[in-house]
Input
Amino acid sequence: MATPARVEDHPRPTLLSDFILGSQDGIVNVLGILLGLVAAGTDVKYILVAGFAALAAESLSMGAVAYTSTRSRRDLYASEMQREKWEMTAVPELEREEIRVILRNWGYEGEEVEEMVRRIEAKPKAWLDLMMAFELRLAPVEEKAPRNSAVLVGAATLLGHAVPLVPFVLLGDRTVLAAEIAIILSGIMLFLIGFYEARTTIGSVWKSGSRMLIIGIGSGFAGFLIGLALAHL
Output
């Protein structure tokens, strides 16, 4: 009895990008807000109000943006698929020539190109999938993908916001100490996000982690500078 072929479980790039988008955005945005308020000498109760307001608003906003953008990619794919089906019926010779161009780019030549065209044309689904992927360079989007993307981005944003906010909840009026701890926790989290990205994809985990750390803390520090400037004004 033949052994069933094993299907490899590869990471989905959209899930990785959704997680990185939400978590990094959550950390950087709320860290910038909190550091700006601390630099301006704001009372801790107003810092917490601003932090939690940003947490709620942006988590919902990021989730909604993820849903609509993923839904638009799904709608675009469906629209282009209908147009491609029409072209396969209405202008088949033009579509055959497009197949030939793709095959020649892959290194096929002469009669083998025509043989491949005949074989592909005999399988309409293969023909359609080929044109969608290699002519239009579009990938199918599952029906549940918009919802999944919204949930993942929203949850990752919520988690990212919580990282720099927790020290202010625990330390109360010691806002300077809370800000210092928030920077350290945010830096660690950003480095781990970059580390995870490199482990999941390719590249140096240290370079990826350091890049994410520098970009994130640098962006958050902009909020501190704005708060400092407003305090002096």
